[in-house]
Amino acid sequence: MTFIMTTQKQQTIKLAVWTWSWVATLAIATFGPRFIWDDHQLLTVLAILTNLANGVMMIIANRKYFNIMDELQRKIHLESLAITLGLAVVVGLSFSLLDQTNLITFDAEIGFLVGFIGITYLITLFINRSRYL
Amino acid sequence: MKNKLKVLRAEHDMTQQDLAQAVEVSRQTINAIEKGKFDPSLVLAMKLSRLFKEDIETLFIYED
Asked: Do the Cβ atoms of A71 and B44 come within 8 Å?
């Protein structure tokens, strides 16, 4: 295994760890006030701050992950991100309009947009990889 | 853009993995360049040029 591959693997693991840590702290900050500490305000603020700090660490890990990619890998991810960002803005605003004009019966929650971003990124990555590799 | 990477690699008896390691990219990147699916950056082109001791113009053929 080459030095680059080893470094990439290590960085992928770090990114995965920070991502799971962010998801876990998000779950704690979401459900903790109701099910664990009975709406204690200080604990809720601490849980949100911990989640925010984990999110920042996840972003830093993601930046490092990008910086150790080679130029083709970076191109594949950048193209996927560009499409995902564009679609997230356009589809997100259209979805919000549907909610505001009461054309849909449910609320346009942020969770839908996050899910849409994740799925779009995965699909565009898959398509871009098959184009170049 | 066409290139002579595959020929030169064969002449030097190198695998895609050997070449990838020598110029610090992934094997998939070397494969994509050889197939003409991806044009390398100037830095990578110069690394390849130095490695094979060939001019960039010999290694890569630009076509309009």
From this structure: yes
Number of domains in chain B: 1
Taking alpha carbons only, the member of B41, B17, B39 closest to residue B27 is B17
Q: Determine whether the interchain pair B38/A72 forms a contact, defined as Cβ–Cβ distance below 8 Å.
A: yes
Answer whether residue A3 shows pLDDT above 90. Answer: no
CATH code, domain carrying B40: 1.10.260.40
A95 and A120 Cβ atoms separated by less than 8 Å: no
Of B32, B40, B44, the CB nearest to A133: B32
Say if CB B9 and CB B16 are below 8 A apart: yes
- What are the φ and ψ backbone dihedral angles of A20, each rounded to 5 degrees? -65, -35
The string of pLDDT tens digits covering residues B4-17 is 999 999 999 999 99
**Residue whose token pair is 């204690």:** A40
